[in-house]
């Protein structure tokens, strides 16, 4: 029995991004089923540039039938680093943006993502869950502009980091944290209960071609299904090229782990930890670490997911997506 | 590079004169498979003067037929400020031997009359490396001496058959910091120089050192069973070291980091290794001294070919038997 009090009211901070899109669609299916409210989408600079992530967010909202949700434009990052266009396509969605209806939100007139975060958290203290699945630039900018603001969120759940496994963008760091390590450190310093979905669990989350088929088969001709099938094929190509899935034809849906945490928490095991972000190392820039030596330590600031039941996770993920896809419009 | 069965391998031990270094040195002096040409001393656990004195102390206890040359090397790391572990190994780096007295009140460890060579360790390393094709170096402290020798004359150093390094931590946390093992932490720049040198390297890190514990009880039983100058020395020099582990890790004993490196030199079959491309972080806020290997599936072994054999597993039982025999 869900009551209004238990429905998460979510701000999604995202840099679409193939796996961001999978998570985004899962969230929208839960919103459609009345299990969550999407307050705003704060797009971020990351996988591809801010202007692109903004319009992708707008396009996905339109495609899935939610054009009225507001979209923020990403706070620019000070130091430009490599993006992930080579993984997600130059437009962040497998070069498929031209197949979708155009963006309807206006980038030049949009509010900045950090201002949206500050206003929403001030207006609804203790009620809003921030789901952050891209580099943490917007959240850090909000915290810097308005110190203590992030503590007004009900909960902050991020996709990022790699603790007891290799990184992806570099051998020792995961992309979201590496892209803006100082922003990540700011977020970890802002409260003592950041929930972290790192590569340790997300590298096990392979969304396969078969699963995509299961989601789309009841309504394969809809624009939404056609888009997902094509995106899936594109992402499988890069996942195999970068040897991310040990040869299995699928893509790693890192960002979806955050929704697993919020809606199917029993599929995850989390460890309480003091997380640190390396911001100065040459080879270890962006590395996240937990001090696991026997001596005592204070200042635990996070809950880090380290194990996931993939089978249960995907059963729920696929079933939820079907709700959105089965009733999607054909054109 | 593999020694013929009955021919001892020429060896130099590079050490920072701490407690487990001493145990490793005893093994080297007692091992017929190793022909110990010299002991080069580096600052690390303790300053280089005291470390050299500690090496001479061990030699005076073991009393080998031929003593190796003992030469002092670098007093501080290549770039980082000096850092020691007197709090762990004792103020003299060897368990504060001046506290021990015989029953009649005379000091058990009187001042030594032997002195280190006047030749410096770097020149000695290079001259011995020129002489042999299969010289093995067993490096038990920060890698400052080796890196300095490589920077001075890399071509000669490339003649070395193998360097067996006690250092680093590939799959386990660090000890001196969350990310780094002590030797690499003290001089990460030197460690990186050695990693890039092209000399074959076997890395004996915390991954296996933590699987080689020596309980205090075993040392005390040994003293009872086989009373001698040597077993007394072992009990004495490990006192403070083992108390540190008892107070900080709940284990009354110590880990045999350096003896394990020595054992690998004598019998490489004791360990299982993995070929890795290893680099050392020199700039990190939390990660200085961290030993880093790219273990992703997508790693590019053409651009970054493996440069070390990293020990990841050890046959603890067989190692302890070897240790017991040589010590």
How would you summarize this macromolecular structure in one to three sentences?
The complex is a heterodimer of chains A (331) and B (327). With 331 residues, chain A is α/β, with parallel strands linked by helices.
What does this 3D model show about the protein?
The complex is a heterodimer of chains A (331) and B (327). Chain A has 331 residues and is of the alpha/beta class. The mean pLDDT of chain A is 94. Chain A starts with 8 loop residues before the first strand and ends in a 5-residue tail after the last helix. Chain A has one domain: Inosine-uridine Nucleoside N-ribohydrolase, Chain A (Alpha-Beta Complex), CATH 3.90.245.10. The longest helix of chain A is centred in the C-terminal third of the chain and has 19 residues. Chain B is α/β, with parallel strands linked by helices. Chain B has one domain: Alpha-Beta Complex (Inosine-uridine Nucleoside N-ribohydrolase, Chain A), CATH 3.90.245.10. In chain B, strands 3-2-1-4-5-6-12-9 form an eight-stranded mixed sheet, sandwiched between helices. Chain B has a two-stranded antiparallel sheet with strand order 7-8. Chain B has a two-stranded antiparallel ribbon with strand order 10-11. In chain B, β1, α1 and β2 form a beta-alpha-beta unit. Chain B is globular. The two termini of chain B are 26 Å apart. The model of chain B has no long low-confidence stretch (mean pLDDT 94). At the A-B interface, loops of A face loops of B.
């Amino acid at each position: 029995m869900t009551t209004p009090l238990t429905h998460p009211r979510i701000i999604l901070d995202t840099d679409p991004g193939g796996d961001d899109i999978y998570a985004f669609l899962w969230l929208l299916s839960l919103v459609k089923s009345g299990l969550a409210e999407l307050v705003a989408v704060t797009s971020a600079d990351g996988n591809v540039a801010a202007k692109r992530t903004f319009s992708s967010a707008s396009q996905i909202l339109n495609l899935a039938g939610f054009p009225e949700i507001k979209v923020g434009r990403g706070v620019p990052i000070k130091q430009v680093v490599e993006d992930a266009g080579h993984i997600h396509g130059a437009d962040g969605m497998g070069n498929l943006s031209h197949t979708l209806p155009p963006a309807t939100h206006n980038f030049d007139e949009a509010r900045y993502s950090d201002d949206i975060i500050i206003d929403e958290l001030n207006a609804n203290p203790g009620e809003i869950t921030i789901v952050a699945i891209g580099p943490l630039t917007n959240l850090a900018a909000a915290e810097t502009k308005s110190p203590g603001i992030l503590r007004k969120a009900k909960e902050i759940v991020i996709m990022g980091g790699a603790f007891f496994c290799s990184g992806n963008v570099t051998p020792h760091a995961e992309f979201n944290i590496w892209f803006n390590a100082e922003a990540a450190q700011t977020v970890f310093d802002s409260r003592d209960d950041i929930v972290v979905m790192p590569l340790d669990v997300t590298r096990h989350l392979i969304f396969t071609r078969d699963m995509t088929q299961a989601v789309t088969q009841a309504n394969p001709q809809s624009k939404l299904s056609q888009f997902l099938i094509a995106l899936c094929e594109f992402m499988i190509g890069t996942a195999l090229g970068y040897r991310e899935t040990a040869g299995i034809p699928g893509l790693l849906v890192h960002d979806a782990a955050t929704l697993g945490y919020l809606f199917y928490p029993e599929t995850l095991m989390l460890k309480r930890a003091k997380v640190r972000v390396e911001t100065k190392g040459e080879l270890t820039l962006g590395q996240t670490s937990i001090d696991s030596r026997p001596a005592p330590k204070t200042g635990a600031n996070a809950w880090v997911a380290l194990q996931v039941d993939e089978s249960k996770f995907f059963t729920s993920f696929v079933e939820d997506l079907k709700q959105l896809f089965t009733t999607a419009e054909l054109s | 590079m593999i020694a013929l069965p009955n021919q001892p391998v020429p060896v130099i031990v590079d050490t920072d004169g701490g407690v487990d270094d001493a145990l490793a040195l005893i093994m080297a002096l007692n091992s017929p498979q190793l022909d110990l040409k010299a002991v080069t001393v580096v600052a690390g656990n303790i300053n280089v003067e005291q470390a050299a004195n500690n090496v001479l102390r061990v030699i005076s206890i073991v009393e080998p037929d031929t003593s190796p040359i003992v030469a002092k090397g670098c007093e501080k790391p290549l770039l980082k400020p000096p850092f020691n572990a007197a709090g762990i190994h004792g103020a003299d780096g060897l368990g504060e031997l001046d506290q021990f007295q015989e029953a009649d009140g005379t000091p058990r460890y009187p001042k030594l009359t032997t002195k280190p060579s006047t030749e410096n360790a770097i020149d000695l390393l290079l001259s011995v490396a020129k002489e042999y094709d299969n010289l093995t170096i067993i490096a038990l402290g920060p890698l400052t001496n080796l890196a300095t020798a490589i920077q001075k004359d890399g071509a000669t150093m490339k003649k070395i058959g193998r360097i067996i390094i006690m250092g680093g931590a590939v799959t386990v946390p660090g000890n001196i910091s969350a990310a780094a093992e002590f030797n690499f932490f003290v001089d990460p720049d030197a460690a990186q120089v050695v990693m890039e040198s092209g000399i074959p390297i076997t890395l004996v890190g915390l991954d296996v050192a933590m699987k080689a514990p020596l309980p205090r009880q075993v040392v005390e039983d040994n003293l009872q069973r086989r009373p001698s100058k040597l077993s007394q020395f072992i009990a004495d020099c490990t006192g403070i070291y083992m108390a540190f582990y008892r107070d900080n890790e709940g284990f009354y004993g110590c880990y045999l980091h350096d003896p394990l490196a020595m054992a690998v030199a004598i019998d490489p079959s004791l360990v299982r290794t993995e070929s890795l491309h290893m680099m050392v972080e020199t700039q990190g806020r939390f990660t200085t001294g961290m030993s880093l290997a790219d273990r992703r599936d997508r790693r590019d072994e053409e651009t970054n070919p493996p440069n070390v054999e990293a020990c990841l597993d050890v046959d603890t039982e067989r190692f302890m038997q070897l240790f017991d025999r040589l010590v």
